[in-house]
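Reposting from the mailing list since nobody answered there.

I have sequence plus structure tokens for a pair of proteins and want to know whether others read the tokens the same way I do. The first protein:
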Amino acid sequence: MKLEDINITEISNNCITLTFNNINHLVDIFGKNDENLNVIEKQLSIETIPKGNKIQISGNSRSVIIAKYTLFELYNRLKVGMNISLNEVNASIRLAREKMEENNKEIIYKSIIRTQKKTILPRSINQDVYIDSLYKKSLTFGIGPAGTGKTYLAVVAAASFLETGTISKIILSRPAVEAGERLGFLPGDMKEKVDPYLKPLYDALYDCLPDIKVERGLNNGTIEIAPLAFMRGRTLENAFIILDEAQNCNKMQMKMFLTRLGENSKMAITGDPSQIDLPNKSESGLNHALKLTKDITEINQINFTSNDVIRHPLVSKIIKAYENE
């Protein structure tokens, strides 16, 4: 955020005025009928008075500062080409709050993911660290509850790597625990057998790449569906490999998967240790791998919490309720 973009006038500890020198984005920042401002007001218990290219913010001094950085964040997202939805407003409030807790005066991203269809900025500090790790480390574990974006961000990062030519293939894998790995009993070819289990990964691909590019990639092998049970013996080079729902791997499956990593490849392993579906209470290969690799500097383990949930705000409350049960 450059100082010439927004001027700040401090009226008192509990009241400031922001002046936007570039008015092109104001409608998007404030929202239709000021709906974005209404969300910010409700969540932070403040009052906003927009007038022309100015907005006055008043309330508790801490909440006023959070509101200020929330508006900065919305402006920043617009400048990089993102569309502002209510989810982005909630994400901006979350980031502003987290930065306040860390006593940071600015929201500075380590990484931004750009694809042909979308530009992605993190919606929490943990997401920021996670994206940075996906770019810098050969192997990243994304651990935590549903709705934190760990799988989605891995797929979008893989798409970005493919578009820039950093890798030549995306490989998507997921244990088919619900079918007991007995994929032969399901109808259709191999792709059709595992499609139900990989739907979230497909959704992310279609969200960030043109449909025709996804279809072409699936047809020519640039985007490969590789059931975990069929990956033994391979060395995966020049690829971005994603293993989703990794909590449902056993120890031998996880060891097999981890040792597939080849030259110029990236690997992202995502899972939620609280949702293990393995039969007979078998030890999760994910939990075992996390213990074994925690001191390997080339590997990052990013732990998401219910505070990182970016779906409907109610989802976060539901997860916290189960955690406190």
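The second protein, same order (residues first, tokens after):
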Amino acid sequence: MLHTPRGGAGHGTAAAEHRLMSIGAVLNVLRDEFPEVTISKIRFLESEGLIEPQRTPSGYRKFSPEDVERLAHVLRMQRDHYLPLKVIREQLDALERGEQVTLPSVGQQRDGGDGDGTPAEDERTAARVGREALLAAVEADEGQLAEWESYGLIGALPDGSYDADAVTVAALVVELGRFGIEPRHLRAMKAAAERDAALVDQVVAPLRRHRNPQTRAHAEARTKELAGLAGRLHAALVHSALGVRAR
């Protein structure tokens, strides 16, 4: 059973204090599995009461290993099951009471394949949700979704469903909206992302055109790797430009 303590009184010993991490260290720990996570995201989840790190007398956040485990669990529930924060909070409360929790099956499937290095058909299609599920996952309404689509931030697949990337984008747009950043402000970021995608495509195009299925599968792996590096570089450049200090 997952242990998801909320921090606080149980961290008073010197040994426990030695294990505490800054928010920047937590970010580095999580980024291998969650490359899109940001300090703002962690702060937002704290503001929603999903994690409760300790604070030093000067106000700096300090996270225990249990806090990090809980945070990773929250991020997985968002990523793999598209659960809204209210439902995640209820699931965590149930776990703390020792109750059995059943998660919905909708989500990203990471295992399986066709034997030639390409994803299995159910893997390619499992991470899709309908319009209502998308809105529920990010706690938005039809008007907001229509606005995001009008600016090209997300788009439905031919069958009317949305893939995992669309859910992630929608969730981030909602979070940015809490800071007063509107979808129209994000058009430049969308354009920059399209330029990055064109650069990645240029690098992997020769691999994609190869007749060997394993080489084509390698192209997909290389695409994901380059996309992750581009995302991390973008985040680092934004932080550098702003002179952000992790606190």
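Reply #1 (J.P.):
I read it the same way you do. Strands lie at 54-55, 61-62, 128-129, 162-163.
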